[in-house]
Amino acid sequence: MTNDQAWPALPVKEWQATRDTLHMWTQVVGKVRLALSPLINHWWETPLYVTARGLTTSPIPYDMGIFEIEFDFIEHKLNILTSSGTTASILLFPRSVADFYADVIATLGDLGIPAKIRPMPAEIPNPIPLDTDRSHASYDPDYANRFWRVLVSTDTVMKEFRGRFIGKNSPVHFFWGSFDLAVTRFSGRRAPERPGADKITREAYSHEVSSVGFWPGTEGVSEAVFYSYFAPEPAGFSKSPVRPAAALYSTQLNEFLLPYDFVRRSASPRDALLHFMQSTYEAGANLGGWDRVNLERQVLGHSA
Q1: How far apart are CA 115 and CA 227, in angstroms?
Q2: Element (H, E) at 226
Q3: ω into 232 cis (within 30 of 0)
Q4: Running DSSP on this structure, what letter comes out for residue 75?
Q5: 54 C-beta neighbours (distance < 10 Å), count
Q6: 115 pLDDT higher than 60
Q7: C-alpha span between 211 and 7 (Å, rounded)
Q8: Pick from 87, 47, 89: which is nearest to 67 by CA?
C-alpha cells in the first residue's frame, strides 16, 4: 500500500460538512454505549475503536446478551449485531442527524434493545439536540473512507507506541465527544484537582497523564493535526526541543501540534509520527519526574 493510500489527503475545507455530520452520528452511537455500559475509570466505557471496516462500540451488554454497533466506511452502513444472532443495517448517506438518531433508536428497539440516551451533544460549542438537528446533513463516502484510512494507519502506529509503556496506559480509542483518536499514559500519581472542573474533566484527569492523539480538524485548529500534551503540564514543557522540526507548541491549546500533511508527505509517516510521540513524551516525563525506568519497556534499536 502506498503512502497516499494509507495516509490520504484530508483537507478540512473539502469535507468539513461531512466531518461535522459524522461527528454527531458518532455521538448518537457513542451515547448508546455510554448509557448501557458499566463505568470504567477515565470514561473508558465510552469510546469507539478502529476496525478493519470502520469504527465499533465493541460489545455492549443488554438484557439478552451483548450487541455491537459498527460504522462500516467501506460499504457505508451502520451494522448492529447481537449475540442472539439478530442483525440490522442502516445505510449511511446524506441525511440529517435527527433522522439518523430516530432510525438508530427505532432499529435498536426492533432488536429488543431499549436505548434511552440524553440527546444533547457533548464537548462542542453551541450544541443542537441530536433529535432535532437538521443543520448537519452531509455525507461524502469518499471522505468518510479517507478519514477511516487515516484512523487505521494512526491506530497502528499508536499501538506500537503504546507497547513501549508497561505502566498504566489506555487502549487506543476514539472519543466521540472530542472526535479524536488518542492513547494516554499515566505516571501512577494522582493529579491536583482542577478548580471548577466538571465531572467529565475531573474523572479524565484525576491522575497525571501524557496523551497523544489525532484530530481531523477541531475547534481552534483549521487543519488535521497530531497532538501531544501533559496534564498537569510540567514547567518548561512548552519550550522543549521535540521532533520533527515541524512540531510546534500551541499556547492556545497548551499542547504540541504536528500537521497531518507533514506526516503523510514524509518518506516514512510511521517514523515521523513515532518521533513526535516519543520526543514529546520524553520531554514531559523528564521534566515531570516520571519513573521512566519502571514505567517503560526497554526496546533495543527502535527508530524513534
Answers
A1: 34
A2: strand 225-231
A3: yes
A4: T
A5: 25
A6: yes
A7: 22
A8: 87
DSSP SS3 for 289: coil
7, 259 in Cβ contact below 8 A? no
Nearest to 272 by CA among 280, 264, 283, 284: 264
HSE-up (13 A, CA, CB side) for residue 183: 24
Rounded to 10 deg, the angle between the 141-162 and 12-36 helix axes is 60
Q: What is the DSSP letter of 233?
A: P
**Read out DSSP for 181-220?**
EEEEEEEEEEPPPPTT--HHHHHHTSEEEEEEEEESSBTT
Tell me the pLDDT tens digit for each residue of 54-107. Answer: 999 999 999 999 999 999 999 999 999 999 999 999 999 999 999 999 999 999
- pLDDT value of residue 196: 81
Enter the pTM of the model: 0.95
CB 139 within 8 A of CB 277: no
The dihedral of CA 262, 221, 147, 41: what is its sign? positive
259 Cβ contact list (under 8 Å, min separation 6)? 223, 224, 225, 246
* Mean pLDDT (the chain, rounded): 95
Give the separation between CA 212 and CA 295, rounded to whole angstroms: 17
Helices (H), 67-140: 97-110
